[in-house]
Specification:
mainly alpha
Length: about 80
């Protein structure tokens, strides 16, 4: 009877996790489609990253931080003349 804690939560089914994952995946889909049509590799791979990373990251703070970094990555690389 004492093998599991009294309160066992799955973070995958929390509303905030589902909402954040939907938002970042939707933005990632937009990046993916735009990058594919315009032949921008940086935007294309950032879109794939935005769609995939919510499956790995379950912490809200980390998810927001990584999502914002992935969304800003193409612009940052373009500004530094490192991307397409």
């Amino acid at each position: 009877m004492g093998a599991f804690p009294a309160r066992c939560e799955l973070t995958v089914f929390e509303t905030s996790y589902l909402l954040l994952s939907l938002v970042f995946s939707s933005i990632g889909l937009g990046y993916f489609i735009y990058g594919k049509k315009q032949h921008h590799k940086t935007v294309y791979y950032a879109g794939i990253g935005l769609m995939v990373f919510p499956y790995v990251v379950t912490d809200r703070t980390s998810m927001i931080l990584i999502g914002v970094l992935l969304m800003g990555l193409p612009g940052l690389l373009k500004k530094l003349d490192l991307g397409e």
